[in-house]
Write a structure and sequence with these properties.
Elements (H helix, E strand, L loop, with lengths): L13 E5 L3 H12 L3 E6 L4 H8 L3 E5 L12 E4 L4 H13 L3 E4 L12 E5 L2 E5 L6 H14 L4 H18 L3 H12 L2 H7 L3 H12 L9 E6 L10 H9 L2 E4 L5 H4 L7 E4 L11 H13 L3 E6 L9 H8 L6 E4 L4 H9 L11 E6 L11 H4 L4 E6 L5 H10 L7 E6 L7 E6 L3 H7 L6 E5 L6 H4 L15 H4 L1
Helix pairs in contact: 5-8, 7-8, 11-12, 15-16
Length: about 475
């Protein structure tokens, strides 16, 4: 082990930085966050250094390094673009048995700056001892996605109760068991939902042995259109915490691979032409699991509030007083259009966008075909493949030009994504000819003609030559 990892309290401790440019600025920002008393020596300074001096956060000395500047300092950072100056700083510090860091010159470092994950007072530091800093940064980024922001408030709350717990429980084992119970309790949920006072009351009740049975809850989580890298950080964190994951067919296998390994997985997906679980049964299942004390992640393709029936499921939970939260996801219209290279709006071609579903309730009203048929508007139709021929006929009858560009995006954002382009008049035949299957999205509007230029992901589409230029369609 080349370096011993230490956490050093730098509050009001004197630190010298040699250099006043952008590299020195990065180090200075980290040190100021830690409360260090900064002195910076340089012939000239970046503007932010000047601001810090005006705010009393740093002392600036205009000039060049000399060894006596090290007197009384705890640490020194050499951050100039002059190798000989950096070497002189390191040599002078070594002669005084001082800790020194020479930026981007690991042999001239007696201490190093790790990659930091800050959930104060929880701090995680990652280092490769200067051998692979980019790799260390990548590891930090991965850990950042798994560590929720409420860790800091949780640690602060635990810290305030630490002496009380010591006074009540004798021995390390008893205290450890109590804290394990706390971390598995609704104290954590309260902090996730930004309810610190309620979390403190609950923890106090646990300490007084007034602990109710573990309460279940439901997380309505949007999984996005398929690419796991489009998941939000919060979605990934909840997927890792859930006892049970209730998911749809639209949730891709790659995303399901990110679910906690020991979590129970229940598929309640709905798929055209196949047996599926009725919505009422899904609602009942969520209620049953939550009332049994389970943490339930209801994982939905896209966004749960855009044709995802998330609102219906929450309404079912309300009479049972089941706690819930909603995590939005990238809806299919946004994700599939972006990965197909189709801007949903464009100043020259589309000033509005309309999301509609091609699969309404049997007793529901008919769509407003005339509003959906306006030019200079992008129309995105979810679940429209089975009714493609009818959609084509209705839109044209309502006034949409048959030569309007159209794209069918199958398995959008996934490795097997397929984009089929043509015109509105060809919609029904394109679906049959290419044997399009769900999940697939219809995008209709002048912006689709830009797709051939803006395409960037996956295979090139089956391109069409549109019968008329855009200016004639408008």
């Amino acid at each position: 082990m080349q370096y011993l990892p230490l956490f050093v309290k730098l509050t009001d401790k004197p630190v010298l930085i040699v250099g006043g440019g952008s590299v020195a600025l990065r180090k200075a920002g980290t040190l100021l966050t830690a409360g260090a008393k900064l002195t910076v020596i340089s012939p000239e300074f970046a503007a932010e250094f000047i601001e810090w001096q005006q705010q009393g956060k740093a002392e600036l000395i205009t000039g060049y390094f000399s060894p006596e500047l090290l007197d009384g300092k705890l640490l020194v950072i050499a951050a100039t673009d002059n190798d000989s100056v950096n070497a002189a700083v390191f040599a002078a510090a070594t002669a005084r048995n001082m800790l020194a860091n020479t930026v981007d010159d690991q042999p001239k470092c007696s201490f190093i700056f790790p990659s930091i994950i800050d959930r104060s007072p929880i701090i995680i530091a990652i280092s490769s001892f200067g051998t692979a800093p980019v790799l260390a940064r990548r590891l930090r980024e991965k850990l950042e996605t798994l560590l929720p922001q409420h860790l800091g408030p949780l640690a602060q709350l635990v810290g305030r109760f630490r002496d009380k717990v010591k006074a009540k429980f004798q021995g390390f084992a008893a205290r450890r068991q109590f804290w394990e119970k706390v971390f598995d309790s609704d104290v954590v949920r309260d902090l996730e939902q930004n309810l610190p006072a309620q979390a403190e009351q609950r923890l106090d009740a646990m300490l007084q042995d007034q602990v109710p049975a573990r309460q279940g809850e439901v997380w309505i989580v949007g999984a996005g259109p398929g690419d796991p890298e489009l998941l939000t950080l919060k979605a990934l964190q909840l997927m890792q915490q859930a006892d049970v994951v209730v998911y749809d067919y639209l949730v891709s296998p790659d995303i399901l691979e990110l679910v906690r390994r020991d979590a129970e997985r229940l598929c309640v997906g709905k798929k055209a032409g196949a047996h599926s679980v009725a919505q009422q049964e899904t609602n009942a299942l969520l209620i049953e699991l939550a009332l049994a004390g389970k943490k339930v992640c209801r994982l939905k393709g896209g966004d749960p509030f855009i044709f995802g029936r998330g609102g219906e499921e929450i309404e079912a939970l309300l009479p049972h007083l089941i706690p819930f939260q909603v995590v939005p996801g990238v809806t299919a219209a946004a994700g599939c259009a972006a990965y197909a290279g189709i801007p949903l709006t464009h100043r020259e071609h589309a000033q509005s966008v309309q999301f509609v579903t091609g699969h309404c309730r049997k007793d529901g009203d008919q769509p407003d075909w005339h509003s959906m048929s306006r030019s200079q508007q992008t129309l995105v139709i979810y679940m429209g493949i089975l009714k493609a021929a009818d959609i084509q006929a209705q839109l044209i009858a309502a006034g949409r030009h048959g030569n309007t560009p159209l794209a069918i995006v199958e398995n959008g954002t996934r490795r097997e994504q397929r984009v089929i382009t043509g015109t509105l008049a060809e919609l029904g035949s394109l679906v049959q000819q290419h044997q399009v299957v769900s999940p697939a999205l219809l995008i209709i509007g002048e912006v689709v003609a830009l797709q051939s230029q803006l395409h960037w992901f996956g295979q090139r589409p089956s391109a069409a030559v549109f019968a008329q230029p855009l200016t004639q369609l408008q």
